[in-house]
Specification:
Blueprint lengths: L6 H8 L11 E12 L4 E10 L2 E6 L7 E6 L4 E4 L1 E6 L28 E11 L3 H7 L7 E7 L8 H4 L7 H10 L4 E6 L8 H13 L3 E3 L11 H8 L5 E2 L18 H9 L2 E2 L10 H9 L23 H10 L4 H6 L3 H6 L16 E14 L5 E15 L2 E5 L35
Parallel strand pairs: 1-4, 1-5, 6-7, 7-8, 8-9, 9-10, 10-11, 11-12
Antiparallel strand pairs: 1-2, 2-3, 5-13, 13-14, 14-15
The structure holds zinc ion.
Length: about 425
């Protein structure tokens, strides 16, 4: 990495590690945190060292003198950067009442502050407008933004587009997905009002051609014409994703209050069940009995958009808190927000802290107290634990630091001090990137 001559004296002034002279073995060392890394079966206190944006070492005790910057994270959880595979972030078009427009949000305002480093847009764009989405949002975001491509060519522009079967063409969708392999990580079908299976079938065709999973928002409920059980036991492939699994809008619980036997059979086949909380897709009266019967989500996701961000959903950590409140073990909540979604979208380099993995990291505090969690209908469940994001690293650089864990006290700095960070670990205020 290139370091300008101005940086060196600043490092000497502000580095807490005393290793500023010359090349340190590590750029950043997170010391003493409780690491939860489901891929590597780690749920214990470990040090995590980072070099050149990658995880360099995870061990019981790493010598602080080896690192340019040491951060004490004792008492905090250190997890892979959170991965939210259901968001709506195509906010740039100016179209009203459209998820390819005003119903979406720009990702960076909603991600790093809650430990999220990767999101997958859930079908805001289709093959006709994906490249506009890429140019105006994906390529300009600091958050890693991936996408499920809508099977509808025009994407999620509202019912007058989303119900048009003629605009659901697997071939151009698959071609667009293959042109952007790794960036388009799945095909989405959503919001379809009619009784036909066509949207699901076309999405699966496109997913098969491009070798990527399909995520289904099952639209209007047609319990006899296209029942949920048939979707997850026959229409979807193993690895395809049923989102909004605690909405109760499509017979997720049967009349006797039991989890739809089709969902149990679908899970056995390898179909994935995702939360997709949203503004209208998560009800305690479904989630409580379903989880009491042992039906936990494979992945936790927000369905972030303007209708969910200030209602019951709020943000990724709040949705994770809800699963803690439901009694899901903490390490499984983390796994369902990191390693599991990484696997579901076939990005297995993410969602873990293996040596060599991109150093996307969340440092979380677990607060204890009295908290309330609200569902889509405004009903509340009490809980006593809540995650707070203290620190987020994206590719080894600090992108969010709630309480200044990485920062020097102002009165220890020289008179007239300016930017205090070092570009080797800091993406907020690195000294040699100062502008204002
Ligand atoms: Zn959605």
């Amino acid at each position: 990495m290139k370091i300008t001559s101005i940086v060196v004296p600043m490092c000497l002034l502000v580095s807490s590690a005393g290793a500023a002279l010359g090349q340190s073995q590590y750029d950043l060392l997170l010391k003493g945190g409780h690491v939860i890394d489901a891929k590597n079966n780690i749920d214990a206190v470990r040090d995590v060292a980072i070099k050149d944006g990658k995880v360099a070492e995870v061990a019981n005790n790493i010598d602080p003198s080896k690192a340019l910057k040491v951060v004490d994270v004792k008492g905090l959880y250190v997890t892979p950067g959170l991965i939210d595979i259901h968001v709506h972030v195509y906010a740039s078009t100016g179209e009203r009442n459209s998820y390819a427009g005003d119903n979406s949000v720009f990702p960076d305002g909603f991600t790093f502050r809650v430990g999220v480093t990767t999101v997958a847009d859930a079908g805001c764009s289709g093959w006709r407008n994906f490249e506009d989405f890429k140019e105006h949002v994906i390529d300009r975001s600091k958050t890693r933004v991936l996408a499920f491509l809508n099977i509808v060519g025009h994407g999620m522009r509202g019912p007058r587009f989303e119900n048009v079967l003629a605009d659901m063409d697997p071939k151009p969708a698959a071609e667009m997905a293959l042109r952007h392999k790794g960036l388009i990580i799945g095909i989405k079908t959503a919001h379809y009002a009619g009784p036909e299976w066509t949207p699901v079938e076309d999405a699966v065709k496109a997913g098969t051609m491009a070798d990527i999973p399909v995520m289904v928002d099952f639209g209007t409920n047609w319990p006899t014409r296209r029942p949920l059980a048939e979707l997850v036991t026959q229409k979807l492939r193993p690895g395809d994703i049923y989102t909004h699994c605690y909405s109760g809008l499509r017979n997720e619980l049967d009349d006797t209050g039991h989890v739809n036997p089709g969902m149990l059979a679908g899970r056995k086949r390898g179909v994935i069940f995702d939360v997709g909380h949203g503004g209208g897709s998560f009800a305690w009266r479904i989630a409580v009995p379903a989880t009491q019967q042992g039906f936990w989500p494979d992945s936790i996701s927000t369905d972030l958009h303007i209708g969910s961000m200030n209602s019951g959903m709020k943000d990724m950590l709040n949705v994770m808190d809800k699963f803690l409140a439901l009694g899901m073990p903490l390490n499984r909540v983390i796994a369902a927000s990191t390693w599991h979604p990484a696997r579901e979208i076939k990005h297995e380099e993410l969602g873990n802290l293996s040596v060599g993995a991109p150093a996307d990291v969340a440092v979380l505090r677990l607060r204890k107290g009295n908290f309330g969690f609200i569902d889509m209908y405004g009903a509340k469940l009490d809980g006593n634990r809540k995650f707070v994001c203290e620190l987020t690293l994206r590719s080894g650089k600090v992108v969010y630091d709630l309480n200044g864990l990485t920062r020097p006290l102002w009165n220890t700095l020289p008179k007239g001090y300016t930017n205090t960070g070092d570009a080797r670990w800091d993406a907020i205020r690195p000294a040699h990137a100062a502008k204002h």
